């Protein structure tokens, strides 16, 4: 599990205030010494915000389609692992020393060849008891030497993997020769102590390997014959019984591990992995190239995500990035109503009646006496001017005006001129198109278990609205169907005249209750209305509370 990452993030379909306040607050936290905090966004950048970012040559915050915990967030990286060449006894020692039951076995490039569990090892050796293959050990001379802690006196086998029929020479030579009779000597490995007659018989037969136990030296005559017959010789410090046991445990892990195992990719959702882990000792996480990046055990599934969120410009999960309910929300800075929201621990929660979240962020800079760059001051000023319609909205307060004045000083910009540029950059509905016009700043609200969505777009005049009305209505219907909404609406605001039109579709009993003059099919006139939050949403909430 990696280091905690904190994302400062606004609502879905972010507007300029949402994006700029996220950037501003993230920069404030970095100035206060937090190096693991980043601005993020839960949706596409709209044309107005794009203009503002380009104006200051600022990068858009990182896009997070969701924050659902994924395999990479909880997997263990520094795990015990083995190679395909690792002797089984070494894996058993790893399991004993680290109290684990699951060891991935990797090839030379880090790709998993299989896994070994305690149960796998037990089955492997229990199944061989009494079987014809019980005396056959597939291993390498290197593994044998390493496992018994011995030394290779003669090596004609090299590093090749070979099946050995293992015999212990603890009987008379005549009986021993009967045991070897009928077997291919080049497949035989003989374990013998200081019995020179058995040693001579072994090398004369030309066995592949002779293991001399007890640390005894090999006589010159035996060495001479072994060289002639190309018999490899290893000296073991243990007695014959112990050596025989250890040789059987020298088998490379690659020959014992099962090739079938549970696996996942780093981006797989934890919820999808959880059911697979129920019947497994562990899941191997590997990347697109097949390289193992970590493992997930049942203990890992209990870990919290390493992602934490600071919510700006919203506090309702319906408006938050997908998966927000599965991670820690550690702070909120907002200026909307308090919705359905709870946390497991107390958190800083700023939710105050001002016109812009950027106003609250600028006040935090002043309160903490933290220097602010011209670029960040300009971005926050854009957020204030956008959300308060250049301080004309009924949501605008004296605090917004004071914040704008302070941000003007720090950025060197003029609010009136800069605000006009901001709104002129995105006032054309035709250029934006129906989809961006509806979804660019579309927020979903809930009352009495029913949901409704309201988007807002600023224009100069309503001529284009009537030209684009049919396309806008189609997008509202699509949004209603996709979100399961009872009402889907778009507030079209003329920032010059300070008035709006409402295009709405939805259940008839809701539309009948709209207390505005109706101009035509699906269109209502909202004179002197420019605030969705303060003037439109409260009216809709009242209707929903009355009907449902």
Description:
37% of the residues lie in helices and 22% in strands. The protein is an alpha/beta fold and 548 residues long. The chain has three domains: 5-69 and 306-424, inorganic pyrophosphatase (n-terminal core) (Alpha-Beta Complex), CATH 3.90.1640; 82-255, 3-Layer(aba) Sandwich (Udp-n-acetylmuramoylalanyl-d-glutamate--2,6- Diaminopimelate Ligase, Chain: A, domain 1); 429-547, Roll (Diaminopimelate Epimerase, Chain A, domain 1), CATH 3.10.310. The strands form five sheets. The chain has a six-stranded parallel β-sheet. α13 crosses α15 (415-424). The radius of gyration is 37 Å and the shape is elongated. The two termini are 46 Å apart.
CATH C-level class of the largest domain is Alpha Beta
| Strand percentage | 15-25%
Query: Which radius of gyration do the C-alpha atoms yield?
Result: 37 Å
Oligomer: single chain
For the biggest β-sheet, the strand order reads 3-2-1-16-17-18
* Strand element count: 24
Give the number of helices: 19
- First-to-last CA distance: 46 Å
Instruction: Categorize the overall geometry.
Output: elongated
CATH superfamily of the largest domain: inorganic pyrophosphatase (n-terminal core)
Category by helix and strand content? alpha/beta
List unreliable stretches of 5+ residues: none
Q: Mean of residue pLDDT?
A: 91
The major beta sheet can be summarized as: 6 strands, parallel
Helicity level: 25-40%
| Count of all domains | 3
- CATH structural architecture of the largest domain: Alpha-Beta Complex
């Amino acid at each position: 599990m990696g280091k905690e990452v904190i994302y400062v993030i606004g609502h879905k379909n972010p507007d300029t205030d949402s994006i700029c306040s996220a950037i501003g607050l993230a920069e404030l936290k970095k100035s206060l010494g937090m190096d693991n905090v980043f601005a993020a966004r839960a949706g596409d950048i709209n044309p107005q915000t794009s203009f503002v970012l380009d104006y200051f040559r600022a990068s858009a915050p990182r896009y997070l389609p969701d924050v659902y915990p994924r395999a990479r967030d909880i997997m263990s990286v520094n795990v015990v692992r083995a190679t395909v060449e690792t002797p089984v006894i070494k894996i058993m020692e790893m399991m004993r020393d680290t109290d684990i039951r699951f060891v991935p076995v990797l090839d030379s490039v880090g790709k998993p060849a299989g896994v070994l569990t305690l149960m796998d090892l037990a089955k492997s050796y229990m199944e061989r008891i009494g079987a014809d293959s019980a005396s056959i050990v597939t291993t390498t001379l290197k593994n044998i030497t390493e496992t018994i802690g011995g030394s290779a006196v003669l090596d004609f086998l090299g590093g090749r993997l070979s099946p050995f029929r293992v015999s212990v020479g603890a009987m008379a030579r005549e009986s021993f020769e009967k045991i070897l009779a009928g077997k291919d000597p080049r497949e035989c490995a003989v374990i013998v102590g200081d019995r020179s007659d058995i040693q001579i018989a072994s090398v004369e037969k030309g066995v592949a390997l002779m293991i001399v136990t007890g640390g005894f030296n090999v006589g010159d005559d035996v060495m001479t014959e072994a060289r002639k017959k190309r018999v490899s010789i290893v000296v073991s410090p243990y007695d014959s019984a112990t050596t025989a046991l250890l040789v059987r445990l020298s088998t490379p892990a690659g020959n014992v591990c099962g090739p079938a195992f549970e696996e996942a990719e780093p981006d797989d959702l934890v919820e999808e992995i959880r059911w697979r882990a129920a019947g497994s000792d562990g899941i191997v996480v590997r990347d697109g190239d097949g390289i193992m990046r970590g493992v997930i055990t049942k203990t890992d599934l209990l870990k919290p995500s390493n992602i934490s969120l600071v919510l700006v410009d919203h506090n309702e999960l319906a408006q938050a990035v997908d998966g927000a309910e599965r991670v820690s929300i550690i702070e909120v800075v907002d200026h909307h109503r308090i919705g359905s929201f709870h946390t497991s621990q107390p958190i800083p929660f700023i939710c105050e009646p001002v016109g812009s979240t950027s106003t609250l962020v600028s006040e935090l800079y002043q309160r903490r006496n933290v220097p602010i760059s011209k670029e960040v001051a300009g971005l926050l000023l854009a957020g204030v001017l956008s959300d308060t319609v250049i301080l004309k909205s009924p949501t605008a307060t004296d605090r917004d005006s004071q914040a704008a004045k302070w941000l003007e000083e720090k950025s060197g910009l003029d609010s009136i001129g800069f605000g006009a540029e901001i709104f002129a950059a995105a006032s054309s509905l035709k250029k934006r198109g129906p989809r961006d016009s509806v979804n660019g700043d579309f927020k979903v609200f809930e009352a009495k278990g029913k949901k409704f969505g309201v988007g807002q777009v600023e224009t100069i005049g309503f001529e284009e609205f009537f030209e684009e009305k049919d396309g806008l209505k189609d997008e509202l219907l699509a949004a209603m169907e996709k979100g399961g909404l009872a009402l889907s609406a778009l507030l079209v605001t003329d920032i010059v005249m300070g008035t709006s039109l409402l295009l709405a579709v939805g259940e008839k009993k809701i539309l009948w209750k709209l207390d505005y003059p109706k101009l035509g099919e699906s269109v209502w006139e909202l004179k002197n209305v420019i605030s969705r939050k303060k003037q439109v949403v409260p009216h809709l909430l009242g209707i929903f509370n009355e009907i449902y």
